[in-house]
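Journal club prep — side note

Before the paper discussion, L.F. wants everyone to see what a predicted structure for a comparable chain looks like in token form. Sequence:
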Amino acid sequence: MSVWRQRWLERFYDRSKGFVDGTAEFHALVHHAIPPGGRILEIGAGLTNETSIFLASRGEVWGLDPDPDVMTNTALARAFVLEGREFPLEDASFDAAVSNYVVEHVDDPEMHFREVRRVLRPGGAYVFRAPNRWHYVAIISSMTPHAVHKLVANRARALGPDAHDPYPTHYRLNTRGRVRRFAEKAGLHLEELRMIEKEPMYGLMARPLFLAFMAYERVVNSSPAFEGLRANLLVVLRRG
């Protein structure tokens, strides 16, 4: 990350002054919703990453992903490649499930939630973070072809050349209404749903863009009335 990007993030989103980034808030939600010591399924685990490592500190983590790269994730006790829509896992075999920026890639939301419920034990939680369909990033993403995402997305977030290309997105589970509706259909209880807007990582392409996106962040965080325009959903669903 360039000097100006690091300096501006530290200036406007200073953790020493109490700022909590999105990943830290997501992990805190997982910590609150999932008791330690159980077996956790990370859906969309991918390569070794911050969330996989965090989950491994909470319990035994199994990973599931359509990308064979999941087999190299060193934080996982076991890893599986997803082929199709049905999870290659036994009924009621997990105490919890977690996904981080995954449900936007799901093309059959009802099937996804039903499979999550099937593999959860009674009382088990599904905790996930996902983009809000009505945030400007998702709106722009849905209006542009995937080839453009591959050219622009990683650069806009100032990710390095080794970062994985973005996956195709569908946004069929990425509103509060759709989460509630499909959870109910699948027999999952909505325990918590909050909307958050954090540092404008997509503005790191250029200083004017960062300032514009930061102004947006300040506005949507100024009042609960703007909650529906915030960037991410943090959700806890629970099997009865």
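L.F.'s comment for the group: The first strand starts at residue 39 and ends at 43. Keep this in mind when we get to the figures.
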